[in-house]
Amino acid sequence: MLKRATAILMVGLVLLVAFQVMGAAQEEEQVTPKNPLLYGLASFVIPGAGQFLNGETNKALTHFLIGVAIPVVGYYAAVASPTPLLVASTAGVAQLGWALFSAMDAYEVARRFNEEHGVAALYMKDGEIGFLWRWS
């Protein structure tokens, strides 16, 4: 009698564990959507910030260092140049171009992440911005 009760208890425990494992496997991983507009704006203001928010730390450091190097090199080149206004203007345009490139890169990486994880687009409802999930 004790052996039979033990066997039934063991089978019950095995089934319980099996159903728990199956249930955990069927639950999808919770994905936090990324906001491409915010990440792009962050990277426009501070080159590399959007890449950092996307989890690309090496790329973020590269974008930040280039964003710092452009005005520094531009300043020293303008001081040494016979046409400092032209050199300073060129450095300003280069800085703006780099900030735009960094913003577009951060936006695109966040948008691609959302697309790969089923987030289709942003939507606005009742004054709040949210994410529209694509069910496929």
What's the layout of helices and strands?
Elements lengths: L1 H25 L9 H10 L3 H5 L3 H24 L3 H33 L2 E7 L2 E6 L3
Antiparallel strand pairs: 1-2
Describe the structure concisely.
This protein is mainly alpha-helical and 136 residues long.
Structure, explained:
The chain contains five helices and two strands. It is mainly α and 136 residues long. It has a domain at 31-118. Strands 1-2 form a two-stranded antiparallel ribbon. The longest helix has 33 residues, at 84-116. It starts with a helix and ends with a strand. The model has no long low-confidence stretch (mean pLDDT 81).
**Which segments are poorly predicted (pLDDT under 50) over 5 or more consecutive residues?**
none
- Beta-strand segment tally: 2
Name the structural class: mainly alpha
Rough shape? Answer: elongated
Taking the sheet with the most strands, its summary is: 2 strands, antiparallel
Distance between the termini: 53 Å
Please work out how many helical segments DSSP would assign.
Answer: 5
Instruction: Compute the average pLDDT.
Output: 81
Q: Order of strands across the biggest sheet?
A: 1-2
Q: Fraction of residues in helices? A: over 70%
**CA-based gyration radius:** 27 Å
Classify the beta-strand content into a percent band.
5-15%
**SSE sequence, one letter per element:** HHHHHEE
